[in-house]
Structures are given as structure tokens and as C-alpha cells.
Design a protein that fits this description.
Layout lengths: L7 H11 L2 E5 L5 H8 L23 E3 L2 E2 L11 H23 L6 H14 L1 H5 L2 H7 L3 H5 L7 E2 L2 E2 L1 H14 L4 H11 L2
Helix pairs in contact: 1-4, 1-8, 1-9, 3-4, 4-8, 8-9
Amino acid sequence: MNDYHMSPDGHEVAHYFEQCRLLAYPDPGSALFKALSAAGIDPYRITSVPAAFARLSGKPWTIGWGDTGPDVVPGLAITRAEADQRYARRMSGEFEPAVRRAVTVPLAQRQFDALVSIFYNCGVDALSKSTLVRLLNAGDTAGAAAQFPRWNLSGGKVLKGLDRRREAERLLFLGTDPKPAIAAALAKFP
């Protein structure tokens, strides 16, 4: 029914908010990230965890376009081409199929794109059984769109970056072009 692949519009929104980082970094919601930042150490530039912070978790470690996994560890460095390959492989092999499995109603391309983006950022297990997907499958597109802002927490705390991303994804889901969706999200959450 939904045989889409993520379109350039979807990639534009996801890439804007993920940014491509070629050195592994701790999750921004993690205790390690917060402690490094508080100590004046840039968490995006460390090649190993300083001994004074070794007891703190940075999981999930992230690299490239927001890619996580067991092979993403402190000190891992990749090229831009590798980041693009990792992203494409996970989108086509993991997140696009997850949206197809979870959603039982026809979608427009931008709806599919927005769902793949939020699945990628928040996780397949959490989104597959979410109120957002239940409402969408029940035919309540407006109700589903209203659920995007609820997915703005990391480590139990609201992050402005997630507010922005969810708003851009919500607008994309509702059919807005990616550039105006991103601009509106940035204006709403300055």
C-alpha cells in the first residue's frame, strides 16, 4: 500500500536536524554530554572519554547523520561518504520498512517522509505502538499530526532542538514544503 521511499523532501528535513558529524559523540541527553559541556569540553570533538568522566554514560553514541548502533563507540571516525552510506542503509533497510509495517492506511509522500524521520530519530519500537500511529491508522490524520510535538524529550527533558524538529516534521506531514517547514519551526522555537 505505501511503497514509498523517503524523498528528497524528507531527507532535507532529517538532514537539517541531524547534521553530519564524522566523529562519534555522546547522546546530547546523556549524563556524559551534559558533564563534558559543563566542564567546557566540546562533546562533539572528543576522541576518547576523559578519565574523570569515565563513570558517566554517553549512550547511545552517535555518528554521521544521527546513526547509532553497537559499532558506534568513542573515538570512531568516518568519512562523509561512509556517513551517507550508513544513513541510506538504515533508512531503506530499517526505517522505511518499519513505517510500512506500522501504518495500515494510505499515505501521501510527505506523510511517509515525516514518519520515517520521526521513526529514525525516536526509534521503531516506540513509534510503532504510539498514539500517533494508532490515530493515523484510525483515519485521524489531524490527531496524528497533533502528536508530533509530544516526542520532544531526551532523558526526560524537553529539548528545543526536538521541539524544532517535531514542528518541521509535523508541517511536512501536513504537506508543507521542507524549507518553509524548517523556517516555521525555527521561528516558533527561536
